[in-house]
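User: I'm curious whether this sequence folds into something compact or stays loose and floppy. Could you predict its structure so I can see for myself?
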Amino acid sequence: MIVVFLGVCMILLTGCQSEKAFFHEMQDINKTVEQKDWDQAKANVKKLSQLYKKEKWKLQLLGDEAEYEGINVELQVLKESVQAKDKTQTKVSLGTIRGHLKDIYSF
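Assistant: Here's the prediction. I'll summarize afterward.
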């Protein structure tokens, strides 16, 4: 029982670090879009996607399927909007991802 409790505590604590990493990457994307540095924005979106793939198992434990799959779908939209250099859609996608993450991490 104690091992299970400690395991859950570890997931929650490492989840908080993941949350900060997600929000940091999204902030970087937002900054590069504001500066119209689309090449760097593409690189930052790639980093965000890699972070999502790495941390997906934690998101699956903390959230429900609609939330973590919603992030996956919105990451695809984000990639396309950055590719198209669409500032408005990029910001909408970032906001949607941010909302899903806040829902997941609000425990």
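Summary: The chain has one domain: 21-28+37-105. The CA atoms of residues 18 and 52 lie 9 Å apart.
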